[in-house]
Write the structure tokens for this entry.
Amino acid sequence: MIPHPTGLPFRSGPPRASAPRRAAAYRRAPGDEWHRVAGGGAVLVELRPGDGVTLANPEGGQICEMLAARPGGQADPGLLGVPADAPGDGLRAVLASGASGMARLCAGLARRGIDPAGARTVSLFGAASPAGDTAGFTATGAGWLLVAAPAPLPDFEAQATATPLVLRIARAAPRETGRFALPDPLADPLQDLRIASATARAYRVAKGEFLQILDVDGRQCTDFQCFDARKADRGLFLPLDVTTTRTIQGHGYPMPGLHGKYFDQELTPLVEVVQDTCGRHDAFALACNAKYYDDIGYPGHANCSDNFNAALAPYGIPGRPGWMAANFFFNTAIDAHGVMTADEPWSRPGDYVLMRALTDLVCVSSACPDDTSAANGWHPSDIHVRTYGAAERFCRATAWRPTPDEDPIMTRESAFHDSFAAMTADFADYNGFWLPNSFPQCDVLESYWACREKAVVMDLSALRKFEVTGPDAEGLLNWVLTRNVEKLGQGQVVYSAMCHPHGGMIDDGTLFRLGAQNFRWIGGTDAGGAWMREEAARLGLDVMIRSSTDQMNNLAVQGPASRALVSGVFWTAPHQPRLDELAWFRFCPARLGGPEGAPVVISRTGYTGELGYEIFCHPRDGKAVFDAIWEAGQPHGLRPMGLAALDLVRIEAGLVFAGYDFSDQTDPFEAGIGFTVPLKSKTADFAGRDALLRRKEHPARKFVGLEIEGQSPVAHGDCIRIGRAQVGEICSAMRSPQSGTWIALARLDVACAAEGTAVEVGQLDGHIKRYPARVVPFPHYDPQKTRPRS
């Protein structure tokens, strides 16, 4: 450093560029396209001369079949410069499977004159292909490319599964005016409108039609406003009102599901949000306006409100100095001090919001011009609008990304969804699946008591399943899990934690041993699978980790009557244990009704604190499995259970839940599952061992039970205090139907965690409203686990 005359050092050299690490979607070169080919699915893309085509097999072991066709529909593998080497049976099976999107894909093939029947295909990869395997081609001419990821026949014992492929296309001559290519339309569009940066456009949408608002290049806000066209014809210009909407919906902004509608001031519903791939928007601030820019020193700056006025004038809609709007992709929040904050949007290139018009509408959308803040990532860009006909059908969905670098996966329905949908419309988007939350003909308490006294059935298909196979499978799992996998016998299940090197938890879950080097990990998140693949690659282990979530949906049948119910529905082979003899934390293959019935895997496990079973089946058999269980369960008093009732029984039983009771800042001891960390008996090293040894010897917090006086509700995040000092917080809480008192799972400073310690639960600001409470034994219900062991 060169000394400064004032004594301060000079900073030599030019300033360093601000270069945060961003998700992969932002790092793609212009003209790069990524397409996710779901396991058991297919995609069709256009080829142009010179385009680079790369197929990636991210999890390994997934076969790929490709069909290239000329513009007139004639199959020609020469477009890829390779011969056709496969009969194409796998590709045709995918098209005929009835999987999501296949009907539209087949219609698209027919329109282009492409007939896959009898066509030979190009085959890539195989069962032994390692994770990350790739193959590349260069298009020799124009045409179409159909890529399929065929699914094998379901065989849970052989751990057959179908995993995603990734198709990447480097366009030789990008056509898009924006930096990134637009994703394909969701259907045949009625309108295809580009809204250039710093402008706005108005357009009409008829009742029942759909409108899709897309962020072309990512991190770009768009203000949206609409009017009931019939009211506007009468001179009533009542725009979408976000205050009315927040009040009716009880949410910061609508999202797909039960709370998905925007209203005007007369409480008329105008649009319903059907799909959302971003999930972060604003419904508090006005669209930017002249006064905003004047006040921060940018007089005359282009703004969305003036752009709205100009776009709406031809429709006779009076202008306003500042427009209320639904500000899609605008990333705002209200902090603990009541201050409204804003940062760059979460939206990636191609993210969108899809809405359905609930009446005839006059709409207006902007591409926000704000280049004075991070609101548009400092680089304002375009917005695109597409509309679709009322006859189209789109499932309600939000986007789920297993990791920040992956493309979105829309919320899906399990094989049991239709069966539960006949009983309720109350579904929650949980971990990328629509799962039932409650049932109008069987309220939460009725489900609770049925679980404790009779039997319940619930959908737990959102659990993530991974097939872990290969010569080093046991070694990998013994490294990434805290439990001693070497002691796990075939047919056994063990509950374990999975930890980061610093001791914080990644996930908890159950491990099934199917063979000497054949395992199935069932956890709560995709992070567990990603972590196992990363560690296998880092350590150079010969092991495959393949997701099987979409090929293995599961029902839980829980309660004292579950043994008799399940034993009467499923058959096991003579060399397998009978289901009425199946021990706790063991599993076996079985079949529905007899030796020729649908194959399933049944484990004696659960998440309720009761005797119970989990039944895993292929989605194609889901309806038959559900119907058989439901019919056989009626004499046993079987009732449906949703997420709301499940929360009651699991809290009472002391069963922890990710995001509430543990996180990556919590070790297993602080989450009340220290029994999963056998530091003395497990002599092999494992991820996080050193940190967990240190944390166990020097604990800072302890997981405890609480009983709270009175009948006022307490909730996750409420502070726990002794005097003025905060000594912990509520993790999960409920009013116990057993005792009639409020109970909680909590994490306290070890100095205040002794049984019988008097504490207070603070609400509002934590001081002006307090509830007396005391530390009690944990768990609250059946601490010896005599009921699930029975």
Q: What stands out?
A: The chain has 16 helices and 42 strands.
